Structures are given as C-alpha cells and as structure tokens.
Amino acid sequence: GFLWYYLGFCKFNEDKWQEALRSFDRAQNLGDINCLGFKAFCLRKLNRHHECLEFTTKSLRQYPNVPSLYFNRALSRQSLEQPKTLVCQDMKKAAELAPELINSY
To answer: Which of 23, 52, 57, 59 makes the best surface tag, with the fewest CB within 10 Å?
Structure first.
C-alpha cells in the first residue's frame, strides 16, 4: 500500500489529479489510510464534489479522527451549495482534530 501511496503523492505534487487518484485508490484497497485525505482532495480538484462528499462521509464512519476528511467534505459541501452550518461543522471538527492547522482551515 505504501508504494502506491508514495506514487500517488508524487503525482499529487505534480498536480496530476487523475493519476494520483488511481494510485490512492490502489493504496486504499491495500489498507493504507494515509491516502484518504489526498484522495478526497483529488476528487475535489477534478470537480467530483458529489463523489467526494460520498467518499468522505463513508470514510469518516470508519476513520472519524482524520481531519483532512472533514476539511475536504466541508469544501465539497460549499461547492455544492449545501447549508453553511454543515460546512462550518466540518471545518470546526477538522480544526479540533488538528489545531496546528487551524489557520489553514
């Protein structure tokens, strides 16, 4: 899983979202959870906001302490013009889980 994650990360850094997403999918299928936030980010960059929302919501049921999932879900919700209260709840949760990133969120 780590090798697929690393390959995805390299593609991610090159802004090759589709290629990164394929690698992150493979990493996830092999049990690597470090790729979850990156996968959600790629879905957003590809304007696949509905899919990102579905993916993050499902992933958060299994991994409720991953701040990047809340962050990406919030931004997808915002893009889909969902209620601001839902966007803010997700941003708040991301900031609570990763206070060192609060300025980014």
So the answer is: 57
For the chain, count helices (H), then strands (E).
6, 0
Query: Cα separation of 27 and 38, whole Å?
Result: 11
> Long-range contacts of range 95-103, CB-CB < 8 Å, 24 or more positions apart?
95/67, 97/65, 97/66, 97/67, 97/70, 98/67, 101/67
Contact 11, 29 (CB under 8 A): no
Instruction: Tell me which residue of 70, 57, 59, 61 sits closest to 33, measured CA to CA.
Output: 59
Model pLDDT for residues 38-91, shown as the tens digit of each residue: 999 999 999 999 999 999 999 999 999 999 999 999 999 999 999 999 999 999
Q: What pTM was estimated for this model as a whole? A: 0.93
CB atoms within 10 A of CB 65: 10
